[in-house]
Amino acid sequence: MIAAAPGRPRSALRRALKALAWLTLALVVGSVIAVALALQGAPRWPAAAEVSVADIARARDFLRRNDPRQPAPGPLRTLVTSEREANLLLGQLARRAAAGATARVALGAGSARVQASLPLPHSAVTAWLNIDATLRETPGLPAVDSLTVGRLPVPGWVATRLLRVLAERARQSTPEGALALSMVRQVRLQPARLEVSYAWGEDSLRRVLGTLLPPDEQARLTAYAQALSGAMQAHAAAGSGSKALPLEQLLTSLFTLASQRSAGGNDPLAENRAALLTLALQATGRQLSDLVPAIQAAPQPQHMPITLSGRDDFAQHFLISAVLALEGGGPLADAIGVYKEVADLRHGSGFSFNDIAADRAGARLGLLARRDPAALQRRLAQGVRASDVMPDVSDLPEFLGAREFRQAYGGVGAPPYRRMLADIERRLDALPLLRPAAP
Fold first, then answer.
1. Cβ neighbours of residue 176 under 8 Å, at least 6 residues apart?
2. 26, 177, 263, 281: which is deepest, by most CB within 10 A?
3. Counting beta carbons within 10 angstroms of the beta carbon of residue 188, is it exposed (0 to 12), middle (13 to 18) or buried (19 or more)?
4. Which superkingdom (predicted)?
């Protein structure tokens, strides 16, 4: 019998360790190369065109056509949207996800190309994920045919598995994801047209509203409703004789609470959103229970108008635009403000440039509430005057009829109209609180 050479086990072990070291090095180098290929220093896909007045009209018609509260035959419903409408929605979702993010889709027969530029969060250097994906229609949710992240191509089968993993994670970690995945049955892709078939049951509206405002958000809104109710009771007890409450006083009261709650560990952006939404609901005569029926125990402040510069319409314009700007960015708030004035021009009280000024002032405050939430809380908690958030616009034209507006300003977008908007921006720039930050 021949004995094994004592050096062979050690030699085999050395070879195995060496192979493992090389494999580890290859994986590390491969990962570094993959990251280098995937990340880029600038966004590749530009932002879509700004939201226009016509877009807002289309969005309103879209909501009317697809109102889930309306009765419909059968348990399945179909949401139909044009490519333009889909891109508007994608753009707003991207802006809400991260500053500077963009997204767009091009629809074809049974396919869609989705492109997005997303800034890498919490990065010490400027880095972007530029995503280019081709989706294919299936009997259910779309599948991924191809995916490129930066300069890194990802095989379709890998991307499809990754999409399934992300969908399952969304189902488990977010109520919005779980609700959407439980409702959507099929997505049909057609040239310039997107159709989404979804299940709608008797409790679906309650589930959607509950998802949009989960319990922690409902508790947060309840706290601000209590603060608003207290501020109104104090104003009434002071015996000033005024039946209206100046917005500047409420901004100080509610953002003092926001600053205190943020100092206690809450998210400053979420606190700002709740404060502005509570004020907007009160200014427009709505209640929290109108937004989410589940909030029945929340205090309902007494009916008391909120004014800005002595006018309740200014407060309404200001607060609605602030909420819209905080949620979707300035362009959306601006377009909705102009749409409101165009509608008044045709059917209501006429076009008013001072309403546009209130819209723009509110939009600037809403953007500040998003970009530097804690700093805005501290500033408003110190106390503000009406002139800090709204310039003097008593000399601006208002209540213009359609013919008068066209003769004097040429319509929305004409040079005389743009000059009026530039004058409004100069007045806003003169307010230190609303002045844009230096580049």
1. 170, 211, 212
2. 281
3. middle
4. Bacteria
What does the pLDDT read at residue 411?
82
Domain ranges of the chain: 53-207, 213-429
CA 364, CA 340: separation in Å to the nearest integer?
Answer: 18
Beta bridge partners of 246: 307
Q: Which residues in 39-70 are b (16+ Cβ under 10 Å) and which e? A: bbeebebebbeebbbebbebbeebeeeeeeee
**Structure confidence at residue 329 (pLDDT):** 59
**Low-confidence stretches of the chain (pLDDT beneath 50):** 1-4, 297, 439
**Residue 275: closest CA among 355, 118, 381, 351:** 381
* E strand spans, 260-309: 306-307
Q: How far is CA 308 from CA 110, 233, 319, in A?
A: 52, 19, 10
Largest CA distance in the chain: 114
- Give the residue among 284, 232, 276, 234 at the shortest CA–CA distance from 255: 276
C-alpha R_g of the chain: 27
Beta strands in 229-293 (DSSP E): 245-246
Residues 389 and 400 sit within 8 Å (Cβ to Cβ): no
Position 439 scores a pLDDT of 46
Residue 419: the pLDDT is 94
Per the DSSP assignment, residues forming a β-bridge with 361 are none
What tens digit of pLDDT does each residue of 386-421 get? 999 999 999 999 888 888 888 998 888 889 989 999
pLDDT of residue 1: 42
Say what the pLDDT of residue 314 is: 93
CA distances from 298 to 145, 212, 224, 245 (A): 49, 17, 10, 21
Decide if 274 contacts 224 (C-beta within 8 A). yes
> Please, what is the end-to-end C-alpha distance for the chain in angstroms?
85
Give the per-residue pLDDT at 352.
Answer: 87
- Residue 197 phi/psi, 5° resolution? -90, 130
What region, left, alpha or beta, does residue 240 occupy, with left being phi > 0 and alpha being psi -120 to 50 degrees? alpha
- Please provide residue 326's backbone torsions phi and psi, each rounded to the nearest 5 degrees: -65, -40
Q: Which neighbouring-strand residues pair with 103?
A: 116
**Are the CB atoms for 381 and 255 separated by under 8 Å?**
yes
Q: Are 41 and 128 in contact (CB under 8 A)?
A: yes
Tokens encoding 296 = 């029945």
Residue 106 is predicted with a pLDDT of 92
Per-residue pLDDT at 436: 79
